[in-house]
Write a structure and sequence with these properties.
Elements: H1 19-31, H2 36-39, E1 42-47, E2 58-63, H3 66-104
Antiparallel strand pairs: 1-2
Length: 106
């Protein structure tokens, strides 16, 4: 996967994302910096039930920018892909080691 961008090709728009989103992700990853506006969230208390005057009866919900959510989605997908690939390779190696061990041990 080295050299391959998991979010697609920003020049052609391929990879399941539009070219503008890909360009934004490209710029952010190239600069290795997330814009400060993306780090801000508006937090709203959502009532869960019970006495409304007790703070623990509310749960916080944070609203962030859509572009930040899109980037989280892309990164999570890439990490899942890497995890699945490594898990399959690790399982295959363990099965090979097990086969070799039991063929040697009487």
């Amino acid at each position: 996967m080295a050299g391959r961008r998991p979010w697609g090709n920003s020049e052609t728009g391929r990879g399941g994302h539009d070219s503008v989103s890909c360009a934004v992700v490209d710029i952010t990853v190239s600069n290795a910096d997330i814009p400060s506006a993306w780090k801000r969230a508006t937090v709203f208390p959502i009532y869960k039930g019970g006495n409304r005057s007790v703070g623990t009866n509310y749960r916080p919900v944070s609203l962030t920018l859509l572009v930040c959510k899109q980037m989280e989605y892309v990164i999570a997908g890439y990490l899942r892909q890497v995890w699945d690939t490594n898990l399959i390779e690790m399982t295959n190696k363990m099965q090979l080691c097990s086969t070799i061990y039991y063929s040697i041990v009487p």
